[in-house]
Amino acid sequence: MTTEGQHAARRVELIEVSPRDGIQNEKVVLSTDDKLELLRRIHAAGLRRTEATSFVSPKRVPQMADAEAVMAGARAEPGHAALIGLVLNQAGFDRARAARCDEINVVVVASETFSRKNQGAGIADMVAAASAILAQSREAGIPASVTIAAAFGCPFEGEVPAAKVLGLVESLLPARPDEIAFADTIGCGVPTQVRELLAGAKALDAGMRLRCHFHNTRSTALANVLAAVEAGVHALDSSIGGFGGCPFAPAATGNVATEDVVYLLERMGIDTGVDLQMLIDTAGWLGDRLGHPPMSGLARAGRFPAAA
Amino acid sequence: MTTEGQHAARRVELIEVSPRDGIQNEKVVLSTDDKLELLRRIHAAGLRRTEATSFVSPKRVPQMADAEAVMAGARAEPGHAALIGLVLNQAGFDRARAARCDEINVVVVASETFSRKNQGAGIADMVAAASAILAQSREAGIPASVTIAAAFGCPFEGEVPAAKVLGLVESLLPARPDEIAFADTIGCGVPTQVRELLAGAKALDAGMRLRCHFHNTRSTALANVLAAVEAGVHALDSSIGGFGGCPFAPAATGNVATEDVVYLLERMGIDTGVDLQMLIDTAGWLGDRLGHPPMSGLARAGRFPAAA
C-alpha cells in the first residue's frame, strides 16, 4: 500500500559511527585490537562506510589517540568498509591524508557559541577552514563530506533556525563537498525540522548528496529517520548499540542505534543491506567491552518476528 | 512549511494510561491514595481522558484490586479527567457500570493464540462477548471503545496480517463502538503498518474515531506516533514516564511516554493541551513510588529549549 507521505525509497545507505562518535566519550579506552575487531564486525554485517576514527588532539580525546594505528590495521584487512576520518582542522586533515583515509569528514557547527566552545573558533572561521580542507581533499582525490553540527538546536543558544543552517549550506557549496550531513548533536530534533532542512538543501543544490545524523536523547530519533528517508535523504549515520553521547547533553542516550534503524527500515520494506542479528550480537560484544549494556530497543527486546 | 506527508492535524487527544497499563505489571503495589494523587496530577497537567483502572480478577492483577475505591475517590475530586474502566468480560463490565465509569474500554486480541492465553477464549468468542458488552454500554449511556490488542504482531504467532485486523474491525462495527484502538501490545510495529490499519479502518467506516496504542519496545513508538497523526488518528494512548511493559515481551520498555509524545507533537506545532513540565515532574514522582526511574527521553534529558 502506498499512502501520502510514503515515498518510493527502496534503499538507504547507513554509515556506522560507533568506532568514533559511539565510543569517543566512553570512560573505557578500547584497545586498538578491539577497535579493529569492531571494524571487522561492521564490515561483516554488511556496512560499507564507517567513521573509523578522528584525527584530534589525544589530550582532548584519549579514546582516539591510536587513530593512525587503527587506520593502518583496518587498511590491512582483506575486506573493509570505506574508512572515514573525522577532521576538525588543518593538522587533522594532514594526519588523515597521511593515514590514507578512504574519505574525510569535516565539521562546522551551526551555533556561534557551540562553535567557539567545541572548535575554538567562530562559524565564519570554521567555514573558511572547512572550505580550505575540502579544496585540498578534492585535489588529493579523497572524497569529503561536511557535517553541520547542532543543526537542530544548540545546548547554549537554544533554537537554531533552519534559515541559519541553510545559510551555512550555501556558504559551503562553493567548496563542493561530496555530501552534506545535518547532525542533531544534542538529540532535540523533530521531523518538521528534518523536512525543512532536507527540502531547503535540495532547493539550494538538487544534486547534493544529503545525510542525517540523529541522537535518540529525546526518543525522536526513529521518527526523524522516517521523515528523512521519506524526504529523500541519501544516507544516515547510526551507531551499533546506540552508544555515544554528547558531552554537552548530560544523561543523554546516544546515537540512534544501527540495529533499531535497520529494524525500522527493513520492516518497512526499505533495504539496508545489513544483517540485523550480527548487529545485535556486536552491540552485546561492544557493551561487554565498554562495561555497560547497549541502549537499543533491539538489543534489549530482540528481533521480531523471532529469528527462525 | 508544508511538505508531502505533513498533514494539517493541529490537535491530537492523548489518553493517559499510566494508572492502568502503566502500573499493572509493576512489583510495587501503589496505595489507593497514590493512585488518586496520580489521577489528580494527570488532570492538573491537562489530560482529559484517562484509563483509570481495570475491572479484572484481583488474583490475576493484584495492582487493580482497589478498582472500586479508585473510582469512588477519583469521582469525588472537584475536577477529574474522563475515567475509563478497562473490562475484559461481563463480570468486569458489571463492576465498571456499578462503579460509574465515565467510559469503558473492552479488549479483543488479533491473534488466536494470544487471545486464548490472555483472555482464556478465542477471537470469535471474544468478539461476541465484546459486542454484547458494547450493546449494554450503549443502552446504559456509557461511551465505549474497543481495543484490538496485538494488532501489529503477536509474541506467539509472529506477524499479524493487516487484513486479519481489519476483518476484526469489520466484525466489531455492527456493535457500534464509539472508538476503535489499534494496540501494538509487544512494541514491534512500524509506520507502514500504522498507515495500512488506519487507512483500512477509514475505508470501512469513514466516521469511526480511531486511536492508537504504542509501546517503545523496539524504539519505534514515536515514528509510529508521527505516522498515526499524519494519517489522521484521533487519539493516542500514552503513559507518563514510559512505564508499563507487556508480560509477554520480556525486558521490554513500556508504553510510549506521554512526555515524549507531547515533546514531539508540540515541537511540530501540534497542540496537545498538556503541560510538559508537569508530566516530567510526575514521571519522577511516579518513578520514586515504583522504585525505578522513568524510561522517557524527556525525563532523562529534560526539555529543549531549557525552561525559561
Biggest sheet of chain A, strands in spatial order? 1-2-3-4-5-6-7-8
CATH class of chain A: Alpha Beta
Q: Write the CATH fold name of chain A.
A: TIM Barrel
Assembly state (oligomeric)? homodimer
* DSSP E strands of chain A, number: 8
User: What's the alpha carbon Rg of chain A, rounded to whole Å?
Assistant: 18 Å
Mean pLDDT of chain A: 94
CATH architecture heading of chain A = Alpha-Beta Barrel
Indicate the percent of residues in helices of chain A. 40-55%
Largest interface, C-beta within 8 A? A-B, 51 and 51 residues
Largest beta sheet of chain A, briefly? 8 strands, parallel, barrel
Structural account:
The first copy, chain A, is an alpha/beta fold and 308 residues long. Chain A has one domain: Aldolase class I (TIM Barrel). Chain A is 41% helix and 14% strand. Chain A has 12 helices and 8 strands. Chain A has an 8-stranded parallel β-barrel, surrounded by 8 helices. In chain A, helix 2 crosses helix 3 and helix 7 runs parallel beside helix 8. The first copy, chain A, is globular, with a radius of gyration of 18 Å. Chain A starts with 12 loop residues before the first strand and ends in a 7-residue tail after the last helix. In chain A, 57% of the residues are buried. The N terminus of chain A is likely disordered. At the A-B interface, helix 8, helix 9, helix 10 and helix 12 of A face helix 8, helix 9, helix 10 and helix 12 of B.
